[in-house]
Amino acid sequence: MLITTLTPLAESIISLLAIISLMLAFVMLGSRWLNNYLYAFALESWAIAALSVAVGIYGHYPELFVIAALTALFRGLVLPWLIWRIIRRLNVAREIHEILQPSSALVAGAMAVVFSLSVAYHVGSSLGLAGTVAVLALTIMLSMKLIGFLMLAVRHEALSQILGFLVLENGIFLGAQILVPGMPMLIEIVILFDLLIVVTCFGMLVQYLVAHVGSTSSLDLKRLVG
Amino acid sequence: MAGTLLLIMVLAPAVAAAASALTRQARLAERLNLAASLIVAVTAVPLTVLSAGGPYYFWGGYIVLDLTGAWVLLCTGLVYLLAAIFSVGYMRLLDEDDRLWSFYALFAGFALTICLSAVMNNAGLYWIAIELTTLVSTFLVGFERGPESIEAAWKYIIIVSAGISLALLGTLLFYWAGSFVLGPTYDMTWQVLGQAAPKMNPALATLSFLLILVGYGTKVGLAPMHAWLPDAHSESPAPISAMLSGALLNVAMLGIVRYLSIADAATVGSLARTALVAFGVASLLIGALYIVRQEGIKRLMAYSSVEHMGVIALGFGFGGPLGVAGAFYHMLNHSLNKSAMFFGAGNVMRAYGSKEISAIRGVWRRAPVMAPLWLAGAVAITGAPPFALFLSELVILRAGLERGFSWAVAAMAALLIVIFIGFLNHFRGMYFDDGDEEAAPLSLSAWCIAPMWLALAPLLVLGLWWPQPLWHHFMVAAQALSGVRP
Question: What residue numbers bound the domain in which B395 lies?
Fold first, then answer.
């Protein structure tokens, strides 16, 4: 079990990187500019790659270095580049339609973290892991999940929905690195590639939206009701 | 034997998809898809029979053929065959001949991903296969390229991808729960998880199962996560609606069923079952409410799918031999019946040029060949005798009473009656209200009518006679699911 054998230094490095990722999720939640979303997402992916390296070193899982490299490459470079291309083609610089002001969204995000903490604390103490990095990992995993859903719900631009979806995925990936570092590598690699295909499909659909609906705002997608 | 059959079954749609994409000829792609569907359907039958002696593992344990998976394969094979026959007639009407090859390539690919999902033995790979079904079918949903169909495709991919990411989280947490028992690295097969389950932490197992249930429940279309389903089902071409409803929803239900038996082994089964039953009742409720006041013909069928997935969820949620048998039987019956209903809906939609129920009048007179079939299908789908859905729903009701879910049984019975009245009322309007007396009878090609016959004839037979071997098959399946592992 990785969690119980960590030195204090390793535990603080891992915690720090995990918290940085959560902070970057908040940056995305509070930002109005699509470009800022994108930079925050790329940085978050790099933080997660660094986390994989840290877990690989301190937990003696050399295969995590491969995962870290792939994460940095795909989540940190290729995905942001794909989305950047879509942003440039669509010519949308910022989120124009928002239901929730960024400030209120941040408050809702904070409440999501509190809720996640209470769930993680309950599960952690029933496993006898209270106070370890496992509770932190579970908290961040669940709260990034909720923040991702929040972004999907309160933003209307198709692109920010894609980014919200990627935050969901990043949260899961981050948690997986800490909680189940021994997970067979095949699965992790396949999931990475899967993500790449998902984003490509999203990109194609956004083009169809522009061509056939004439808008990428979900506010305009209300033909189908009832 | 089983391995070879499985390989043929998977290769057929793969070859058809690849060849269609390479040759780019509509007619050739059409035939390839038809041939592939025939092969899948024909191989699915012996695989179902063989699966009773299993489970069999192939490919280093990554592929499994078990009773539950084989049953889903059978439903998929039959629906795929019917839909492939129907699409020959239906898709030619669309006048998109230059793009039609891509439709058939995606169609075969869609069938391939569904078949793969049903035989995945690794929980992580199963998740990926399910995700792939979404990606392939999104483009089929948006194939007609109208604003509505693109909107439906976008909603479909966003809602379902976000939804099943919850299932991925649940899968990871299950892996984590298992790692306390089995050590940090192990192969996350259904079997291994089931063996580790009794020693799993109950709190963690509960959290994981609920995440899985909501995640895959999104894909199954259980209310209140069903939001994508009516849009996608109503906007895709009719053969794809049939595939979504008759094949895709089942294969997602398969995941829930597999995790349910793990939750049972982890001694959190009663909470898990109650949650599944609650989602089932909610689906019936949403289905009933939207069916009664529905205006679109294919949305009517889509909400009926929400309802029937609720019924199947209730069957598995009640559990026990009766519940599992009823749910299995209902899965097959619903697949056949809903395919026929979507084919009929597609036919009238094309013929009348409208999706609105109010615009479809005088079906009886204008489509004399199809009308009795479609009406019989409508009677069958509402669970009236002598069709097979009556039997399976009755068995599920009995299972609920036996297992102490009388509140759910009461709700189910009441809602089924509401749906019966609401659904058939729409058909009364379409068949017997006065329409345009001058309009000429419609001409429908045999490709469009034959699959309805093929779907409804077995339903009538299965409704009058529940074969003993089939009953025995379900009993073995129920035993396998209840944790008695060979």
Answer: 2-482
Cα end-to-end span (Å), chain A: 50
How does the average pLDDT of chain B come out, rounded?
Answer: 92
Helical (H) or strand (E) element with B374: helix B371-381
Q: Is B182 on the interface with A (CB under 8 A)?
A: no
| Residues of chain B found within 8 Å of residue A177, distances taken between Cβ atoms | none
Nearest to B161 by CA among A7, A151, A147, A198: A198
* Interface contact flag, B165 A165, Cβ < 8 Å: yes
Sign of the torsion angle spanned by Cα atoms B245, B247, B250, B252: negative
Q: Which residues of A touch B123 (CB under 8 A)?
A: none
Tell me: the pLDDT tens digits for B297-307?
999 999 999 99
Distance, in Å, from the CA atom of B17 to the CA atom of B394, rounded to the nearest integer, reads 40
Contacts of B452 (CB under 8 A, 6+ apart): B340, B343, B344, B370, B373, B374, B377
List the single residue in A with minimal CA-CA distance to B293.
A226
Q: Are B423 and B307 in contact (CB under 8 A)?
A: no
Radius of gyration of chain A (CA): 18
Helices B67-92/B249-265 angle, 10° precision: 170
Is some CB atom of chain A closer than 8 A to the CB atom of B299? yes
Tell me: pLDDT of B43 over 90.
Answer: yes
| Structure confidence at residue B485 (pLDDT) | 43
Task: Give the pLDDT confidence score for residue B82 in this predicted structure.
Answer: 96
- pLDDT tens per residue across span B16-40: 999 999 999 989 999 999 999 999 9
Facing B165 at nearest CB: one of A122, A169, A190: A169
Chain B residues in contact with A223 (beta carbon < 8 A): 147-148, 151
Interface contact B135-A148, CB threshold 8 A: no
Q: Judge whether residue A68 has pLDDT over 50.
A: yes
Residue A154 CA, distance from chain mean position: 16
Cβ separation B162–A148 shorter than 8 A: yes
Instruction: Say yes or no for a CB contact (<8 Å) between A184 and B124.
Output: yes
pTM: 0.94
**What are the tokens at B344?**
């009929």
Distance CA B156, CA B161 (A): 8
- The count of structural domains within chain B is 1
Q: What is the pLDDT of residues B174-196, one digit of tens each?
A: 999 999 898 888 888 999 999 99
Is a pLDDT exceeding 70 seen at residue A216?
yes
Task: Name, of A99-113, B311-325, B434-448, the range with top average pLDDT.
Answer: B311-325
- The per-residue pLDDT for B296 is 92
**B 331-360 residues with CB below 8 A of A?**
none
